[in-house]
Write a structure and sequence with these properties.
By secondary structure, this protein is mostly helical. About 7% of the residues have low confidence.
């Protein structure tokens, strides 16, 4: 008899423990703490950055450069806030802004955006990162459109140097 009583006491304690754990978990999910709210906000902002980038790319593909710029600038601002200045995604926004400005005919802003992306990629990776070739090709095109063929040639050669370096590293 005593054995049955001990078993039922253990079961009761075990059930109470599980009910307590469930209750604590349930209450925490109903009333999030400040830390949970911050995590939730950061996740929402991160998703917002991705969404803004994708919407910017779609607008760019449709030829709506003003809308693309609005999306890229908004995403860049939120991205800087949550990721910091030194993050690869920031360079993607800068490159996309450069493309948008170039297509819109605002060449000085395009050059500025590309140069910011270049600086960031060099600081994050190296001077031989393949993304630099893409930036240099675009910079060269902007300078060619502006009639500065010397800078056009310099940036095309820089792109070639990066691509050759990348290929040499693969071999």
């Amino acid at each position: 008899m005593k054995k049955k009583s001990e078993m039922s006491d253990k079961r009761l304690v075990s059930r109470c423990l599980w009910v307590s754990v469930f209750f604590i978990f349930f209450m925490n999910s109903l009333y999030p703490t400040a830390a949970n709210e911050k995590i939730g906000e950061a996740q929402r902002d991160s998703l917002k950055v991705v969404d803004l980038y994708q919407n910017g790319v779609r607008a760019l593909q449709l030829g709506d450069f003003e809308t693309a710029i609005i999306h890229f600038e908004s995403g860049l601002n939120i991205g800087r806030r949550i990721l910091g200045e030194q993050h690869q995604r920031i360079s993607s926004f800068q490159i996309s802004l450069g493309i948008s400005y170039k297509n819109q005919g605002d060449y000085d802003k395009a050059i500025d955006a590309y140069l910011k992306a270049e600086k960031l990629i060099i600081s994050l990776f190296s001077e031989d990162n393949p993304r630099l070739a893409y930036i240099y090709i675009n910079l060269g095109i902007v300078y060619k459109i502006k009639g500065d063929y010397v800078k056009y040639s310099e940036f095309q050669q820089a792109a070639l140097r990066v691509l050759q370096s990348t290929q040499a590293q693969k071999d």
